[in-house]
Structure formats: C-alpha cells, structure tokens
Design goal:
75 residues; mainly beta; four-stranded antiparallel beta sheet; two-stranded antiparallel sheet
C-alpha cells in the first residue's frame, strides 16, 4: 500500500491532493480537505504510471500554487 507524504506549510489549514493515471489521464485520487501531511488510499492503486500534486489551502481559502509534479509507478 502506498502512503503519500509532503512537507507541512505553516499557514495551511488543510491540503488538496491529486493523483492522475498518466497512461489514461484519469484522476484517480482527489482529496480536498486533508488536515494531515500524509494520505493513504483505502485501496491499492492498480499497476501503472501516476503523477501526484499537492497544494496548501489557508483558513481564509487562499490557494497556494500546486507543488511540482512527482511521477511514480506501481507494479
């Protein structure tokens, strides 16, 4: 099982996480209210190539830019 982890942003009240399947273009995970700096999906991702982004959101709703993309594969 994969766990995603990122660095805390001091002004963030929560985070948005998105994972896309690079092969199909499908958004496979979109979590918009994460209050932790880790996330473990309920089910394993199928084999494939993926791309993840995270961004911080302040308590006033200000959106930080998306992080740099990170690509990974599952077998």
């Amino acid at each position: 099982m994969v766990t995603f982890e990122w660095q805390q942003v001091l002004a963030a009240s929560h985070y948005s996480l998105q994972v896309n399947n690079v092969d199909t273009g499908e958004v496979v995970i979109r979590e918009n209210q994460l209050t932790s700096v880790t996330f473990t999906p309920a089910a394993n991702l199928p084999p494939g190539n993926y791309r993840i982004w995270v961004r911080a959101i302040s308590s006033s709703g200000t959106l930080a830019p998306w992080s740099l993309k990170q690509d990974f594969s599952t077998a």
